[in-house]
Amino acid sequence: MSQTRKRVALLISGGGSNMVALAQSMTGDHPARPVLVLSNDPAAKGLARAAEMGIPTAVAEHRPFKGDRAAFEAALLEPLLAAEPDVICLAGFMRILTPDFTGRFAGRMLNIHPSLLPKYPGLHTHQRALDAGDTEAGCSVHEVIADLDAGPLLGQARVPVLPGDDADSLAARVLVQEHRLYPAVLRRFVTGDRTPVIL
């Protein structure tokens, strides 16, 4: 008897390319399925892409809450809890979540970050790697904890930094690897395997 497929909610803020890569991977005999794409921005292009793929969507816009993170997160929780996810994947979700929120989903929430963590948590990762003279860059998938981009690593993929690279060219090359790494980590994670994926 096959086990019930795990329910995955995907949180986005923009175009949702990592969301699309994850959703497209959850087909056939995959042990998980997407049940919700949730955005803090009603204009996020990823919402339309999710709808085209037949995935339910919802919006919890952050702007009306004017910095009241607890109230925003209460709005975020409403559609999220209704979807009853087993796993939450942050896929370009550009809001920092409170310890109360991350604690509620401890051990069940993943994020992808465009650097080789623990290097360069936060923003502007590609320019920071170039400014530091790094010879390689990449991306990391990690469990989400209260501290920003600091949870246990579940996978990394590396790319060389090439002569003449700028932040945009490096970002484009890293993004290709993000679309490979995140689905590989998710497939392993939903089976209970926390062994890091190295690409």
TrEMBL record:
Task: Identify which residues the record assigns to the active site.
Answer: H113 (proton donor)
- Give the binding site residues for (6R)-10-formyltetrahydrofolate: R69, M94, R95, I96, L97, N111
The domain of life is: Bacteria
- Alphabetically ordered keywords of this record: Purine biosynthesis, Transferase
Detail which positions bind N(1)-(5-phospho-beta-D-ribosyl)glycinamide: G16, S17, N18
* Residues under site feature: Raises pKa of active site His: D149
Family annotation (Pfam families): Formyl_trans_N (PF00551)
Tell me which EC number(s) this protein carries.
2.1.2.2
What Gene Ontology terms describe what this protein does at the molecular function level? phosphoribosylglycinamide formyltransferase activity
- SUPFAM superfamilies membership: Formyltransferase (SSF53328)
Which residue ranges does the record assign to the Formyl transferase N-terminal domain?
A: 6-186
Q: Give me the segments passing through the membrane.
A: none
The record's catalysed reaction(s) read:
N(1)-(5-phospho-beta-D-ribosyl)glycinamide + (6R)-10-formyltetrahydrofolate = N(2)-formyl-N(1)-(5-phospho-beta-D-ribosyl)glycinamide + (6S)-5,6,7,8-tetrahydrofolate + H(+)
- Give the pathway: Purine metabolism; IMP biosynthesis via de novo pathway; N(2)-formyl-N(1)-(5-phospho-D-ribosyl)glycinamide from N(1)-(5-phospho-D-ribosyl)glycinamide (10-formyl THF route): step 1/1
Query: What's this chain's function?
Result: Catalyzes the transfer of a formyl group from 10-formyltetrahydrofolate to 5-phospho-ribosyl-glycinamide (GAR), producing 5-phospho-ribosyl-N-formylglycinamide (FGAR) and tetrahydrofolate.
- NCBIfam families (alphabetical): PurN
- Family to which this protein belongs: Belongs to the GART family.
What is this protein's record name? Phosphoribosylglycinamide formyltransferase
Q: Which organism is it from?
A: Pararhodobacter zhoushanensis
Q: Which gene encodes it?
A: purN
